Amino acid sequence: LPTPCALVEWEAVERNTARMAERVSTLGARLRPHVKTHKCVEAGRLQVRGHFGGITVSTLAEARLFAAAGFRDITYAVPVAPARIREALGLARGLERLTLLLDSEELLREVERCSAAQQVRASVLLKIDCGLHRCGVDPRTVEAVELAAACSRAPHVDFRGILTHAGHSYGCRDREGLRAVAREEREIAVGFAERLRGEGIAVPEVSIGSTPTLAVAEDLTGVSEVRPGNYVFFDALQVALGTCALEDVAFSVLTTVIGSFPDRLVVDAGALALSKDAGPTHLQPGCGYGLVMGEQGVEPLRVAALPQEHAVLLPRASKDLRRHPVGARLRIVPYHSGLAAALFDRYVVLKGGEPGEEWRPVRGL
Amino acid sequence: LPTPCALVEWEAVERNTARMAERVSTLGARLRPHVKTHKCVEAGRLQVRGHFGGITVSTLAEARLFAAAGFRDITYAVPVAPARIREALGLARGLERLTLLLDSEELLREVERCSAAQQVRASVLLKIDCGLHRCGVDPRTVEAVELAAACSRAPHVDFRGILTHAGHSYGCRDREGLRAVAREEREIAVGFAERLRGEGIAVPEVSIGSTPTLAVAEDLTGVSEVRPGNYVFFDALQVALGTCALEDVAFSVLTTVIGSFPDRLVVDAGALALSKDAGPTHLQPGCGYGLVMGEQGVEPLRVAALPQEHAVLLPRASKDLRRHPVGARLRIVPYHSGLAAALFDRYVVLKGGEPGEEWRPVRGL
Predict the structure, then answer these.
(1) Mean pLDDT on B39-68
(2) What does the angle CA A241 – CA A244 – CA A248 come to, to the nearest 5 degrees?
(3) In chain A, which ranges are E strands?
(4) In this predicted model, what pLDDT tens digit does every residue of A93-103 receive, in sequence order?
């Protein structure tokens, strides 16, 4: 295999997706897995097994790819840019449902305007903020209730309910912290849904979830569906968070040693293979850009510098590096598999450790 | 234009490339510009104007693209992985010269073995380390001289000379620091070349250079060629270093406001549009992931969080954000244009501020 090369271990994907599907069933919710980590149909098909087949996407390019592959119920879980609503509604025509996210009056106005013009009803979820402070209305406010009411009244909008994402779980320090965020994610969403129902607003969908919160969630009462995504591949960040074991990580980058010096190694996987995601610096300051894997597991090497097309590996403690000569192969498990995977045109899928089929992720808008 | 969209200002590219070409001529060296920042033929053609036409690449994919476009003299400026030497030598057959880089006996042995097997002579430069401590032999050592001697004796190697890159210039704090690194880059390279010549080794090529060191270099005596690359586009890091003005930056990412909250904005350019390069944190701690440009220039906004497909902009000081409503367009100048540009399939080229042609960068290996 020419390097750098994106490797996906099929058995790990199969195991990760089966476990999550079962876990979510046991907890009594529907699974609408996110496909943004891998952006390819094959992994999406493994994710939906045993569930209703709905998925979550982060781009309209993903939506188009999965729609073409037969997925019929898709939630586009980033608030839609006004100029792309028309395109999204057009894509929705061929599907059972393409649900859009919104979190402002302006967006509601635009969605209503476009769906009226296109003579369709837009399926809509209201995004609420449960502590991440990125997208989403503050569910404690009157404005949040008013916006939900406005959605439910809008003539060309099919108001589906509410959605939140506890992405701040990635900043937790331990499982106790994760459990607190997971509880809050559910309570805030379910509480807000109850408040809306108290106002006479129908809220069929209460959608929550992230891989870390799903890893520890004990109660999904009142939640209709969950949307984890990273668990398909996992990554070194999830290992650091304790939400998976190292052997669960399905994605890595194969690289070749191109320089072997007394004090450092140089390999041919750079920022355009690993991404410059800084990893869980709150847990492991100076962690570098990934875990270096040799034949005996994690090597005591830090991905210390990451130029565009190569990387410098330094020993974590003093150590003779000479046992990795020029030409040797190493694998690097990145901290953020979604960002690294998106840098490749194809993933080489290993079955029983042997390269077999290739999966091709979709790119762009 | 659908967002996120990579914008290239043609006038800035034209001006940046003309200036660098003239500057290098005035200093008496040849320009072998690096194309890795943009990876597209159109920008490469602007770079070589007035010079001999040679270029520098960071991947064999770039080498193939430019070879197909008629470029005849290419230096592949990353030490070649042993398994890719055969491919590189095959590509060299159709060219005047494809020069490979090496910095170890192992690589020399592999290059000699492959070129003997393919019955060609491999054009080779020895990479030396002038302080960056990534690739390259330490030119103060006996081993460095011995490796150069071995290159010059190898029957299937055409030893072209030495190459260095003062990438540590990117860590400088001011122009005085840059000037010191630029002087050192030249002196170490020229000094080592002289030492080799003293040993009877022919050193036709002494190749140095980075955009920051070329911005301040006052003397290139003894240097045959220079290889800056970033100057085509520049970026927010170069602005912070003082090696260009903001109006020289040719690359930016157009984005749409999808959330406008009292305390923050959310835009639709995420880590897959800007890259997670952390920028010049040694100069500007907490600088975020780029400079946000509005109609009146730099906005007092920090790209504070960068999920995969969207970004959160926070005020640098307290400020009402409401003047950027949902749907508004902003441009973000990333800190590392090479990494951001590589995330796009195409750049929309603006002439006189109007979108015209598109340039398509090459991707992958």
Answers:
(1) 98
(2) 140
(3) 5-9, 30-31, 55-57, 73-76, 97-102, 122-127, 157-163, 205-208, 225-226, 251-260, 265-267, 291-294, 297-305, 311-315, 329-333, 347-351, 354-359
(4) 999 999 999 99
Above pLDDT 70, what percent of chain B? 100
pLDDT in tens, B145-187: 999 999 999 999 999 999 999 999 999 999 999 999 999 999 9
SS3 state at A34 = strand
CB of B269 closer than 8 Å to CB of B332: yes
Pick the residue with more confidence: B318 or B361? B361
CB B323 within 8 A of CB B336: no
CB–CB of A345 and B363 under 8 A?
yes
A264, A308, A327 member nearest B339 (Cβ): A308
Q: List, in sequence order, the alpha helices (H) in A199-270.
A: 211-216, 236-241
- In this prediction, residue B323 carries a pLDDT of 83
DSSP string for residues in A120-160: --EEEEEEB-SSS-SSSB-TTSHHHHHHHHHHHH-TTEEEE
For residue A97, the model assigns a pLDDT of 97
> Phi first, then psi: what are they for A152, rounded to 5°?
-70, -20
Count CB-CB contacts under 10 A for residue B69: 12
How far apart are the C-alpha atoms of A357 and A41, rounded to whole Å? Answer: 13
Sort strands B157-163 and B205-208 into parallel, antiparallel or unpaired.
parallel
- Rounded to the nearest angstrom, the minimum Cα separation between A79 and chain B is 6
Q: Are A159 and A151 in contact (CB under 8 A)?
A: yes
Strand partners, A160: none
Contact B155, B105 (CB under 8 A): no
Chain B CB contacts of A265 below 8 Å: none
The segments of chain A whose pLDDT lies below 70 read 319
pLDDT of residue B308: 97
C-alpha B187, offset from chain centre: 22
Give the max Cα distance, chain B.
71
Contacting residues of B for A361, CB less than 8 Å apart? none
Check CB contact of A143 with chain B, cutoff 8 Å.
no
Phi, psi of A215 (to 5 degrees): -65, -25
- Token pair listed for A86: 């028309």
**Which pLDDT score is estimated for A362?**
98
Does B320 score more than 80 pLDDT?
Answer: no
- Chain A residue with minimum CA distance to B308: A339
Q: What are phi and psi of B218, to 5 degrees?
A: -110, -15
Cα–Cα distance measured from residue A82 to residue A85, given in angstroms and rounded to the nearest whole number: 6
What is the rounded average pLDDT of the residues B298-305? 95
Q: Write down the pLDDT at residue A280.
A: 96
Nearest to A105 by CA among A158, A144, A156, A59: A144
**DSSP single-letter state for residue A81:** P
Q: Are strands A297-305 and A291-294 parallel, antiparallel or unpaired?
A: antiparallel
Please, which residues 177-236 of chain A have a Cβ atom closer than 8 Å to chain B? none
Whether pLDDT at B322 is above 90 = no
Q: Does residue A286 belong to the interface with chain B, where contact is any CB pair within 8 Å?
A: no
Phi, psi of A340 (to 5 degrees): -70, -45
A348-356 — which CB contacts under 8 Å span 24+ positions? A348/A1, A348/A5, A348/A6, A348/A7, A348/A8, A348/A254, A349/A8, A349/A9, A349/A10, A349/A42, A350/A7, A350/A8, A350/A9, A350/A10, A351/A10, A351/A11, A352/A11, A355/A1, A356/A10
Rama region for A330: left / alpha / beta (φ>0; ψ in -120 to 50; rest): beta
Separation CA B84–CA B76 (nearest Å): 12
Q: Residue B52 corresponds to which amino acid? A: F
B136 pLDDT higher than 80:
yes
